[in-house]
Design goal:
The chain is of the alpha+beta class. It has one domain. It is built from two helices and three strands. It has a three-stranded antiparallel beta sheet with strand order 1-2-3, with helices on one face. Helix 1 packs parallel to helix 2. The chain is globular, with a radius of gyration of 13 Å.
């Protein structure tokens, strides 16, 4: 992956961890390549760009976990 793609992945993962992702999906973009597309709570669409299939699938798993965790982490504590 290029540095630019790494930065995009880190941004997307950070948004998921903070509970700011509305949805995500993967889309084919060539021979054995996938793109991860994310919609934020603000309606912005972000993309990782084309990645090898294995890397894209790992990102999907991470986003799934981070999105679940982010909902509990990002909520203010109730007193």
């Amino acid at each position: 992956m290029s540095l630019v793609t790494d930065d995009k992945v880190y941004l997307i993962e950070g948004l998921a961890m903070n509970g700011l992702i509305k949805s995500f999906q993967q889309r084919g973009c060539g021979d054995m390549k996938l793109e991860v597309i994310v919609e934020t709570l603000e309606g912005e669409t972000l993309s990782t760009g084309c990645l090898d299939e294995k890397t894209a699938k790992k990102i999907i798993v991470v986003l799934s976990l981070y999105s679940k965790w982010g909902k509990t982490i990002a909520q203010p504590s109730q007193q």
